[in-house]
Task: structure prediction
Amino acid sequence: MVYLTRKAEFSASHYYHNPDFTPEENRRIFGKCNNPHGHGHNYTLEVTVKGEVDPRSGFVVDLKQLKEVMHREVLDAMDHRFLNKEVPEFVAQIPTTENLAIAIWQRLETKLQQAKLHRIRVYETPDLFVDFYGEA
Amino acid sequence: MKAYLTRRYLFSASHRLHSDAMSDEENRATYGKCNNPHGHGHNYRLEVTVSGPVDDRTGMVCNLVDLDGFVEREVLSRYDLENLNMLQEFAKNVPTTENLCVEIFEILQRGFHQAHLERVRIEETMMNAFEYSGTAELRK
Result:
């Protein structure tokens, strides 16, 4: 089994707010991230796939295809967007880095040919990242 | 859905690698320049990984404010700008980054209960890093 990781960057804004919480609870739990006008990050996405190396091509995955899928499913939808307002998953769900990693996994999982998705890593800043392996 | 959250922190400290169980000559042979009697320092990069189900109401594995507060209070304030050899846990234990990893893991395991502790990783320099996950297998 060989693992291959492809990186991408995107920039987006978000804010954290749960309509079921009172305004005080929202401020206490989410702090500055509760500012309704949002704030932004330069996210770094790492997509790791795994598989056997194809003896004819020497590839685990066709990188061109992986890159296209990442662009179409993730970057086109999220780059330079306000996640809460423009990405359907985050209309009802808070766009934390945890939920972002899960949403990206769900967008990519069924779209990959050949290789299997192993891990989604999303860096919100260089000092904070979330890993998701598709675990329930 | 189970997710893994990793937070990075920075602290600076000095240490000297010297084992009382070895002769001076053995210490020099084993630790080389790190055995220099006056010690030397590093900018350590600490990574703490915790895991757990993502809370439906908050979208979080745990509140970062809690993790940051705990690490600041129990780890960074203990080690930042200190000489590790002067600390009680390294009175008999050589303050290698391996042992530092284990110490920090145990501090977190004892006191941080808002999420499951997965792993402590420390970069001593850009060229070497150490990881400890207690009795569990390291998740890659």
In short: Chain B has three helices and five strands.
